[in-house]
Amino acid sequence: MQSIKNTILKEDLAKIFADFTEKEKLRDSTIFITGCAGFLGYYFLCFFIYYSGKLGIKKIIGVDNFLVGENKWVEDLERKSSGRFVFHHFDVVTNQLKDIPNVKDANYIIHMASVASPVYYRKFPMETLDANIVGLRKLLEFYKHQNIDGLLMFSSSEIYGEPIPEQIPTPEEYRGNVATIGPRACYDEAKRFSETLCYLFSKVYNMSVTLVRPFNNYGPGMNINDGRVPADFARAVVENRDITIYSDGSPTRTFCYISDAIVGYLKTLVYKSFDVFNIGIDRPEISILELARIYKEQGKKIIGYSGKINFSPPPEKDYMIHNPNRRCPVIDKARKNLGYAPKIDVATGVGRFIQYLSRGI
């Protein structure tokens, strides 16, 4: 792969390489990634391609159906990969895995084929449901006798719903408080059922399947039209528009910078045992208003941002329905079993995100 021009991305990939201490487990591997054209897929692909020589990776196969829009960078990465990365326009629900060349050779699989933004999964509820249930079932059936080294399935912190106060911060053992009917149910309940599918296949077929529940990842690679709060705020800053909050600003979250999150996912990928891990950062838990202030301050310092923070009614009437008021993980199990140790604070991460956008990809 040619040299990476954006220094923020280059520094992030170097940090991931340094912190991912299980590198040898990827040697001579073929990696298959579904939903590779999304936010997390961007960092996975950049990392695997840029460090493929040092990691000893033989091949990366990626698929995506571009449901929420085509990303030109996928084609660009394929061209720069010197044949290491091959992309296929593919729908995990309607197309057949056997038709993808060399996909049976994959020994590590990363399943991310799902709409993740509430803006889009409310727009595509059936597609969201099917990717997480039908698509995943087809994937598990295809690889159940392939003797793979690891299949990493991306679940979500949304499977917890609105945790009761006693379960915040939220551990993996919490069973959730989720609405089965409503605008978020297509995503939340599909992810819950996908976890059951993975559990059953791991037990019945002795598959090496591991689950991750991401908590509010953000940073470079995130589409600023994504519709999630970190993307909305970033777009406002780089366009020098006012930051708009579609609530009273009081809901709280922890926000995990992308390079910290990717290290956790890589460690989970090579874990080789069935388990589920919260991947995020456990402090500080801040309000959406506090996050907006951080974007405003970092934007002013880095690119001279001059906008204000405004409050407005949501653009859709059901925008806030079943939106959890607090979201904060317990990551003790990931720390103990994976050696996962996120370090980047929100102000630093937001600053890096703005610098990345201001310098061009």
What does this structure look like?
- The protein has 361 residues and is of the alpha/beta class.
- The chain contains 12 helices and 14 strands.
- It has helices at residues 7-19, 39-50, 52-55, 72-80, 118-121, 125-143, 185-204, 229-238, 258-269, 288-303, 332-338, 346-359; strands at 30-34, 59-64, 85-89, 108-111, 150-154, 209-214, 217-218, 243-245, 252-253, 256-257, 276-279, 286-287, 309-311, 326-327.
- A 7-stranded parallel β-sheet has the order 3-2-1-4-5-6-11, with helices on both faces. It has a 3-stranded mixed β-sheet with strand order 12-9-14.
- It is globular, with a radius of gyration of 19 Å.
- The two termini are 15 Å apart.
- The model has no long low-confidence stretch (mean pLDDT 94).
Helices and strands, in order, run as: HEHHEHEEHHEHEEHEEEHEEHEEHH
The description of the largest β-sheet is: 7 strands, parallel
Number of helices: 12
Percent helix range: 25-40%
The SS-based structural class is alpha/beta
Mean pLDDT: 94
Rounded to an integer, what's the Rg over CA atoms? Answer: 19 Å
Order of strands across the biggest sheet? 3-2-1-4-5-6-11
User: End-to-end span in angstroms?
Assistant: 15 Å
Stretches where pLDDT is under 50 for at least 5 consecutive residues are none
Overall 3D shape: globular
The total beta strand count reads: 14
Beta-strand percent range? 5-15%
